[in-house]
């Protein structure tokens, strides 16, 4: 009788110990998971909603004082949902002290329409009259103004860029006389950080209010960086239209005293067509017995500056056409930060007809861009109807099959 009793007591103690151990393991996993930092390089804040609120500290809504916030709250419909998580600290509490905001001298020319913190007497009636009396020719030459803010978080070693809005953009759609603008931003010269805003439909005065936070940038390196804003208009059926660009060298800009509000005029993009589009070394071989075309993309040299940094990330896209219809496509690997790329990549295409009379091949040299559509640096077409070296190269491979023939070709505008 005593043995079953002892066995039952030990079984009960074992069951209690197992349950306690299981609960302790679950609690440890939960706590370690909650403390784990999410793997990302920057945090994107859209319209005041922070997708990672635990990693931003004491963020205040851009350019809003108590009066403007009260006015916005009263004008906000009841059905809308507004999450102002930027004001909270790491513990989820609201800080008592407001961050110091430093104003830029460039903001003296702004009207109260742009920023809520502007006083009514900051713009004189004469200046308003001069603004409204602009001629139609001056308005056509202007590409608009970009408003943004810069800030550095010393505690987290984070560089914060807020793209507020753009005003007075030109209409890129002639039918609707409007645009679908968005902004692509790159931190130069390394081009490691490439981000872009969302597309706003049918507006010439887009209010983005999007914040990008870049971690791991020491404050000592800020002076060596340059911000490049590219303003574009989305086009569903073709390449996006480039409205203009804004280049902001950070040398001499002091961010130690708080957030800096800035505005810059949008200028035309420097396409640099006069410097040439570069050259491409191609080797071709036509195998008449197997009816295949071997294409070797060897090198590219003297590629133009695709952006203000002067550093391209080129790759080559190869398209095979039969009677003006694309039947096959290939592409090389991307070569980082070089105007003189060495590819040495071979592609074999099956020819669907006898001979190369109706065959042509197109080479597109593009700049790889993670943030948006890749830009075409230059174009080359080889075929029986091609002019210049493209036609001569094609004629030689037709006259000398099974022979690998390589030639340099000048690239034309994409």
TrEMBL record:
Q: Could you confirm whether the keyword Lyase appears in this record?
A: no
Q: What membrane topology was assigned to this protein in its record?
A: Single-pass membrane protein
Region annotation (Disordered) ranges: 62-82
Q: Which InterPro entries match?
A: C2_dom, C2_domain_sf, Synaptotagmin
- What would be an example GO MF term here? phosphatidylserine binding
Per UniProt, the keywords (alphabetical) are: Calcium, Cytoplasmic vesicle, Membrane, Metal-binding, Phosphoprotein, Repeat, Transmembrane, Transmembrane helix
* Pfam families in the cross-refs: C2
| Gene Ontology cellular-component terms listed | axon; cytoplasmic vesicle membrane; exocytic vesicle; plasma membrane; presynapse
UniProt KW Calcium keyword: yes
Single GO BP term: vesicle fusion
Family according to the record: Belongs to the synaptotagmin family.
Name assigned to this protein: SYT4 protein
User: According to the entry, what is the taxonomic lineage of the organism?
Assistant: Eukaryota, Metazoa, Chordata, Craniata, Vertebrata
């Amino acid at each position: 009788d005593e043995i079953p009793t002892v066995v039952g007591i030990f079984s009960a103690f074992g069951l209690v110990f197992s349950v306690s151990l299981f609960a302790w393991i679950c609690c440890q996993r939960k706590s370690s998971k909650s403390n784990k930092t999410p793997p990302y390089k920057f945090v994107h804040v859209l319209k005041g909603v922070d997708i990672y609120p635990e990693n931003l500290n004491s963020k205040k809504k851009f350019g809003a004082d108590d009066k403007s916030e009260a006015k916005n709250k009263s004008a906000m419909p009841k059905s809308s949902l507004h999450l102002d998580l930027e004001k909270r600290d790491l513990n989820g509490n609201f800080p008592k002290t407001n961050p110091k905001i430093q104003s830029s001298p460039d903001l003296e020319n702004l009207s109260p329409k742009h920023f809520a913190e502007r006083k009514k007497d900051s713009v004189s009636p004469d200046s308003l009259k001069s603004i409204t009396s602009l001629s139609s020719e001056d308005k056509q030459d202007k590409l608009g103004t970009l408003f943004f803010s810069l800030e550095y978080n010393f505690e987290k070693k984070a560089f914060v860029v807020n793209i507020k809005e753009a005003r007075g953009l030109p209409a890129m759609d002639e039918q609707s006389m409007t645009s679908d603008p968005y902004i692509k931003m790159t931190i130069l010269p390394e081009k490691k950080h490439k981000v872009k805003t969302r597309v706003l439909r049918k507006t010439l005065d887009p209010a983005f209010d999007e914040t990008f936070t870049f971690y791991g940038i020491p404050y000592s390196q800020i002076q060596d960086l340059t911000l490049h804003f590219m303003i574009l208009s989305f086009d569903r059926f073709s390449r996006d239209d480039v409205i203009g660009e804004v280049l902001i060298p950070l040398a001499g800009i002091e961010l130690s005293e708080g957030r800096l509000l800035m505005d810059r005029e949008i200028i035309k993009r420097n396409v640099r067509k006069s410097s040439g589009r570069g050259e491409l070394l191609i080797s071709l071989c036509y195998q008449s017995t197997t009816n295949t075309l071997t294409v070797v993309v060897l090198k590219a040299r003297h590629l133009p500056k695709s952006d203000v940094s002067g550093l391209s990330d080129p790759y080559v896209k190869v398209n095979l056409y039969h009677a003006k219809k694309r039947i096959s496509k290939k592409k090389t690997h991307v070569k980082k930060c070089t105007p003189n790329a060495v590819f040495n990549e071979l592609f074999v295409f099956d020819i669907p007809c006898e001979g190369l009379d109706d065959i042509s091949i197109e080479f597109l040299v593009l700049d790889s861009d993670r943030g948006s559509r890749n830009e075409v640096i230059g174009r080359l077409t080889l075929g029986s109807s091609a002019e210049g070296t493209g036609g001569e190269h094609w004629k030689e491979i037709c006259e000398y099959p099974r022979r690998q023939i390589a030639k340099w070709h000048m690239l034309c505008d994409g």
